[in-house]
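PROTEIN ENTRY
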Amino acid sequence: MANAFKNAVVVICGHGKPSSKRIRDALLTHIAPGSLIDHDKEKAHKSLVKAAKCTDEA
């Protein structure tokens, strides 16, 4: 994940394919409400978009 200044944000969230909960728990505190999340269509990202009250595009 990168922020508006294109600085990378890296968070370890376990091994293997991350679940919706692991993604949300790892990244939610790093995202401002209303942000645009550009992701790779991974279904688990939808939970993060909803929890952060963001918009998304894939």
